[in-house]
Amino acid sequence: MKNFLIAFITGAIFILGSCNGTGSRDTEFSNEIDSVSYAIGVSFGNQLKMSGMETVNADILAQAIQDMFEDKDPAFDEVEANMILNRYFNMLHYRENLEEGEEFLRENKLREDVVTTESGLQYVVIEEGDGPIPEYDDEVVVHYTGTLIDGTQFDSSVERGEPAQFKLSNVIEGWTEVLQLMPVGSKWRVFIPQELAYGANPRQGGPIEPFSMLIFEIELIDIAEE
Q: Among residues 29, 88, 154, 166, which one is catalytic?
């Protein structure tokens, strides 16, 4: 976002320096502020298009600018606005991950052995256990292997030779949901939509890119005693 704003300001300065007071088609400028306003719009519009945006609600954009100049309380504060913008432009950059995951889940849902929950999470039962089913506040012991859609493995307790132990409330939503469906002794293959995984915010520098759908093979070994 910082780079985006710098590019916007730089572009605005360039256009302001070369502005001659005439616009496209029938645009008329009555004074310098009209020219400056149009120049800012040209620069801002170009930067938005270059960032990947295909459309914008010009009325709402104008309202937000007007609110700022009139010192009105905005609908979003600066922190919220930056979060919304960062997520959106991040999504544009990683749109391929989002679309690839959605297509995979649409096709996968048609398989007879796949169960799809209300949230969109999908799973296949490899082995069905007969033990108790964990609850939200429980701590569980599991073995797992995680892969991306292309089969790239990014984590595996199996390879480390030591099961993982954690509270259901402390993991991604997809894990929290599916483990509350699994009896102890079960092994399931789980397909987790990006919004139930790490969404826009995976660990920086890690193997998981933003908006990546994840696949896990999970074996629920036990519910840990408190």
A: 154
Let me know if 191 is a catalytic residue: no
Confidence at residue 226, expressed as pLDDT on a 0 to 100 scale: 63
SS3 assignment, position 220: strand
- The CATH fold assigned to 2-93 is Helix Hairpins (1.10.287)
Active site residue 216: yes
* Sequence spans of domains, the chain: 2-93, 95-223
- Any catalytic annotation for residue 211? no
pLDDT at res. 21: 46
Measured distance CA(43)–CA(186) in Å, rounded: 57
Residue tagged active-site, from 198, 208, 211, 221: 198
Which single residue is written with the structure tokens 């606005």?
Answer: 81
The beta strands (E) that lie in 87-178 are given as: 115-116, 122-127, 139-147, 153-156, 164-167
For the segment 186-197, the average pLDDT, to the nearest whole number, is: 98
Give yes or no: 138 in active site. Answer: no
